[in-house]
Write a structure and sequence with these properties.
With about 325 residues, this protein is α/β, with parallel strands linked by helices. About 45% of the residues lie in helices and about 10% in strands. The protein contains 16 helices and six strands. It has helices spanning about 5-15, 25-35, 55-65, 95-105, 110-115, 130, 135-145, 150-155, 155-160, 170-175, 175-190, 205-215, 255-260, 270-275, 280-285, 290-310, and strands at about 20, 35-40, 70-75, 125, 195-200, 220-225. Strands 1-6-5-2-3-4 form a six-stranded mixed beta sheet, with helices on both faces. Helix 11 crosses helix 12 (about 205-215) and helix 14 runs parallel beside helix 16. The protein binds tyrosine. Keywords: Aminoacyl-tRNA synthetase, ATP-binding, Cytoplasm, Ligase, Nucleotide-binding, Protein biosynthesis, RNA-binding. GO terms for molecular function: ATP binding; RNA binding; tyrosine-tRNA ligase activity. It comes from Sphingobium nicotianae. This is Tyrosine--tRNA ligase.
Amino acid sequence: MTSYSSSLLKLLDERGYIHQLTDAASLDALAQREIVPGYIGFDPTASSLHVGHLVSIMLLRRMQEAGHKPVVLMGGGTGKIGDPSFKDEARKLLDDETIASNVASIKRVFERFLKFGDGPTDAVMVNNADWLDRLQYMELLHDIGEHFTINRMMAFDSVKLRLGREQSLTFLEFNYMILQAYDFAELNRRLGCKLQLGGSDQWGNIVNGIELGRRRDGVELFGLTTPLLTTADGQKMGKSLGGAVWLNEDMLPRQQYYDFWRNSHNDDVTRFLRLFTDIPMAEIDGLEGAQGEELEEGKQLLAEAATTLCRGALPLQ
Ligand SMILES: N[C@@H](Cc1ccc(O)cc1)C(=O)O
């Protein structure tokens, strides 16, 4: 474990959110000096986010808890392409109407996890359609395309799956990385955003944004990725009910959401308590190695805390 000085990196480290980090020492110093606006993007590919997105959402919550500014980016522009990173096939393209209605219904869940407003550490929400839709193709090719080489873009692990003989990467999808890089530089210009967070599959996209900021604008940007979450029995997080575990109430009833957490694998309980609830570290540490009834109580604690966070408290009977 690395030792950090800023409350932000200490918190993220002890609760298990850090997989990779660019220039940890500088980010640590920056977070001690000033309020850091940090963003995560979510593409509106369905009408609700699912448990797989929850680490990212909690990460924004932790930013705010540590006194920094969370920026939620709705991918109204990038959602028209679909991120090819680590995907073995292209997404079905969505029409504008579907994207707009997905954005509208995804948005709501963030109000449960973040405090929005005009204050310095209040969360804000932006939509990259606001700047990507307006981009002129020649301008993009000239101003942005100049900073990217095909050689380097093809070297990222995230596109390897598609460069074999079986699947291919369309030219449309190949642009995704550039647009996400553009977003980061744009959010730096607009909101002073200096940090982009995301799942480990986002590393290539994030690093490209950092590079673009440095080359074009001479600014220092940072990236942080979270570990790819699998459950103790090796499954992808949130897929264990056969379908996705949706965050929106209209897509999955509260009881089923609760049961998903209540049925967590024994070996996942403390890790999930750290990642997905606000239960204090000392209390979670006390549950380490718990068995029998104590372990069951830990699962109940997890289910109650995680459900209340996402779905709100139940009214008093
Ligand atoms: N590519 C991200 C979403 C995203 C979109 C735009 C961004 O600027 C950042 C992130 C994903 O697939 O999860």
